[in-house]
């Protein structure tokens, strides 16, 4: 199976790198700057005692030949529209597309370009970043990828995709309820992102202040209410995990959105919070805290512009 990984950043570098290590036929679609770094240093995965150096196949936009069987989309939201056009020559009638972006906004864009039947749902649970040297640094011992068909019947090639992704050094799960999984992850990332980005602090820094835990719990309640109204209530155990993760005193936890924010980089504010607020309004759910986060990040983004 020919696999194209779009982007060799924090998520694409890790999952694509693991697939390369496992001997799968993987090519990374990269832009010139990233290509230079990977060609000079190799694709390096570091952190948690690891020092892996790989020399994967790279391809640039305009050099793609023939369709791939699986396209793993690992760009950030701001790069999605351009990446969709770059990757189009690699998508044929039998290609399946597996995006790992947070939220749900990207599904509509991918479906509009490539068709309903081609786009799977996906959830990545990792904590990785690209460091100053261009290496993929693992910050936490999490490596899991969950994917599945968003509607029945599932594409025939999905079983083969699952076989290719399995046994490659990360947890690979074929889900029969991927939309619910995506909503669950969205509630988690929006809760964690809202608490840390609005307060400009890690989970522990917020939880350690009077009122911090109550604030975080109120954020989780808003996010969960939207998911429930949308028809994807987060199971109680999963919600309890989310609540525990965002209220833990002393915890250094923070999402990639917070790392981007504190580094002065572009953030996925509209995709993670704005989209949730819009859906809440349509569903009649009150989300004053999420509206505040959206406004806060809009101000941040306007100052960057
Ligand atoms: N990092 C994490 O721990 C997690 C992130 N996520 C989500 O995954 C998604 C991806 O995030 P992440 O991997 O962190 O982002 P990164 O910015 O680290 O990586 C994205 C990569 O995509 C590349 N890219 C963008 N456009 C193109 C293009 N047209 N062609 C080729 N490459 C392109 C960028 O290349 P260039 O270097 O040229 O800019 C960059 O290397 C986000 O939605 C994020 O929220 C989900 C779970 C965990
Ligand atoms: C919260 C986390 C680490 C889970 O994978 C994530 O999705 C992110 O940082 O973007």
Automatic annotation (TrEMBL):
GO biological process annotation, one example: pantothenate biosynthetic process
What would be one Gene Ontology cellular-component term for the protein? Answer: cytoplasm
List residues of the Ketopantoate reductase N-terminal domain: 3-149
Q: GO molecular function terms here?
A: 2-dehydropantoate 2-reductase activity
Q: Which reaction does it catalyse?
A: (R)-pantoate + NADP(+) = 2-dehydropantoate + NADPH + H(+)
Q: What does this protein do?
A: Catalyzes the NADPH-dependent reduction of ketopantoate into pantoic acid.
Q: What is this protein called?
A: 2-dehydropantoate 2-reductase
Species: Amycolatopsis saalfeldensis
